[in-house]
Amino acid sequence: MHCPSTVNGTDNLANGETGRRSCPGERRVRPTYTSRPPYDRDNWVTIVRRGKGSYHMARKQNTSVSIADVAKVAGVSAQTVSRVANGSEAVRPATKKRVLAAMDQLGYRPSFAARSLRAGRYHIVGLAMPSNISATGRRIQFENIATAAADHQYALTLVQINENELSLTEASRRMESLPVDGQILGLGMEPYDFESFVPPSSIPTVIISPKPHPLCATVSNDQVGCAIDVVNYLVDKGHQEIRFAGGRREAPANIGRYKGWLQVMHDKGLSPQEPLFGDWTADSGYRMGTILARDKSCTAIFVANDTMAVGVIYALREAGIRVPEDVSVIGVDDSMVGVIPRLELSSYRFNDERVGSVAFDLATNPPAEDLEMPHILVPGTLVERSTVVPPR
Amino acid sequence: MHCPSTVNGTDNLANGETGRRSCPGERRVRPTYTSRPPYDRDNWVTIVRRGKGSYHMARKQNTSVSIADVAKVAGVSAQTVSRVANGSEAVRPATKKRVLAAMDQLGYRPSFAARSLRAGRYHIVGLAMPSNISATGRRIQFENIATAAADHQYALTLVQINENELSLTEASRRMESLPVDGQILGLGMEPYDFESFVPPSSIPTVIISPKPHPLCATVSNDQVGCAIDVVNYLVDKGHQEIRFAGGRREAPANIGRYKGWLQVMHDKGLSPQEPLFGDWTADSGYRMGTILARDKSCTAIFVANDTMAVGVIYALREAGIRVPEDVSVIGVDDSMVGVIPRLELSSYRFNDERVGSVAFDLATNPPAEDLEMPHILVPGTLVERSTVVPPR
DNA sequence: ACACAGAATGTTAACGTTAACATTCTGCTA
DNA sequence: TAGCAGAATGTTAACGTTAACATTCTGTGT
Asked: Quick one: three-class SS letters along A35-102?
């Protein structure tokens, strides 16, 4: 993803000896620019300051210092250095001091590769995700897995999967060549090889999926449960004509929410009207809203995410329908807090933190060989704000 | 971040032999639930299905298969296996076939640890970020670094830094014990040890920072340049009374944008009115909007991000001031596309992709020892939409 | 001063891979 | 059919670390 190299005249200043390309307008400035108020945009200067003594020296012996080097300098055996490095008790204070001094002097850092070669473990979990991490849900999931890992002193290694080829097999294959103790596959959409995927024997595998998999542990937000809770809530408030405004038809999350809505409507003996489907954006919500505005009998709308819910509300209000006085609206995700002033959108908040920690847990501490594969659905909670009231 | 263990009665089904805790409401369901329309929320079933032959077999010899095992089975030397594994030409097709068969049979995977111990490289870059990755800007940065890494066949390892102790030294220390060839430190706020930080000699280090650092390469979006472009644009449209509605006072991004605004106002001989500051949220924008609504001479407002710009616009409109007819408003980030229907907010879009690729590039292919430390500011582009027009 | 227990330190080997060199094949030429 | 070049394969050693065992200290009690 390098910038097209339309390098303009003044730009060559930024091309270092390494041959790095720069983009038009990109510039290097001298270290002091922030303290020079009359910021001069066209006067690009190349900085000259360099590291001092210690840093420069350290760079010299860049070619990794090994435990043997430290041992030689400290006048002890490699094993003793290892003991000091690992905080063993059985080292005389005087020796320890000598070793620490030698480490410091040489800038010794234990080699991750050598350590994990011995240990057979990495203390890292891998996460495979599609490239557009930003999409709500995915992003939050990612963040929470990262947090769970950090809580357990694990690092997280990310493998980006091309949006267009969501294949569990491919994701897993790439992960296998990386230093990970377990892998979490969060591909969002159901990948085409979901059924046929066989997890590698070498690393525990968890799939983030609302659908169970015969050979892998799976974790997910409980989409159906979410819809059940939301629709029950609306019914409890007294609503009977509850419409469903969904997201992308084939999205697993959308399907789950739709199913839950349908089920409760049936269970309660209510007649579900034609569901609508959008594409998760506010615009598609707006479009559905214009249609829903014509349904005079409808008193509540369950929208499959908050972004679309905003669109629905705009459309309703433009059509002269008040929310919540005339029609109640509830979304999913609880993602609109602090984004739109004076909009207190009722919503459903998933427990992404829990999903992350369960996924991490299953990936690093997999169930025993002969146990069944867990399929865990994590419930969220309904967030009451002000867009749902009893019908008039 | 485990769930408090108020495990209820029915819940113990979910407690596997591994002693894993489950949360109330969490459940395991049988694999077939999605195809069982009358979804029964209270009937939790534990799945029993297990892997078949091949999978089970593979699990057996879990304790990693080495190159020597493959060699033995294939009746060749380890070196030959290595050659096959690395796609060397110099292997007779018949031999290659035997080796591949042996690999397949045993489920051989080369050991990352051993390989990188030999190679001295990992093909992984490390990224240190504060825990709340979601914050606009940071998230996008993250995503773009991940993409840049993927483009170069690198994986990305994330180290989360506690929001409350943003220390470059600490971040770097943790990174040093991980398998990374280079590190990118993106701590957001300026960490307290920015000045005193000495990068490790072992791995190339890049800081994402609008301020240069004497010992490290630095990359950043050009905040000052952004403001300069935006304010010049407003001036070109004919605006003279241009107010600034900023974000968190001490945030580096906010400071840069403020400085750029101030500079252009001075350069153009315009008199800058008192700047306002919020906290990046729509609510704070709304608050600033109510104040700005009282300034009758102001014709344009430069808001330091889009979220606040939305708040400002709401407040203005509620005060009966039309946007853009009476007052033009422009934000930064271009983050509101598709979020609010019918709002076409003019904005400034940073080139985060470029920042990510430059950061990655500097981390994996650092400038030669005796070169000056680069400090690179990446410009963005102004996005004209419909909230800026010439003043009446 | 001597024996001895236990602490401190050292030695060896192994983790899995591959570069560099060594050896053995293969097919071809004279 | 010997000789040979070059292809195919094998052997050795090293990457940096640490578990397991071996050795050497140290101080204490006689």
From this structure: HCCCCCCCCCCCCCCCCCHHHHHHHHCCCCCCHHHHHHHHCCCHHHHHHHHCCCCCCCHHHHHHHHHH
